[in-house]
Model the fold of this input.
Amino acid sequence: MTIRPLQPQDLPAYFVLRTALWPDSAADFELEVSKILNHPHLASFVAEQKGRLAGFVEVSLREYAEGCDSSPVGYLEGWYVAPKHRKTGIGRRLVQAAEDWARAKGCSEMASDSELSNTPSHQAHARLGYQEVERTVCFRKSL
Done:
């Protein structure tokens, strides 16, 4: 298993993984990935096993994150491991790569978020030492 930065040649397989996590992201894939590949405050790391991608993590630098005292803050924007590769340590290694990247960018804290209903994500974060700091309910209204 190799954890490494996303490369342009990974994009077809990355598209499959990324749209599994965010099904509505397909239309914006090229623009978003271009930003990740070309912006110093964004990164993506992939897990490669036997020449195939098994998961990814996208990380950014944010000026602020809930519950954090420092700035900038490393932020797990997205984290996905293909179902057949879960509970093998791949997710942990991806997050470690994101944390190492943030640390190298001067961060002393890391943050993340998850849908309120995504209990498996909450549990995975907790296993990696992340502490819940806040719960939010969002609202909208058509005008």
User: Anything to note?
Assistant: The chain is about 30% helix and 25% strand. The chain has one domain: 2-127. The first strand starts at residue 2 and ends at 5.
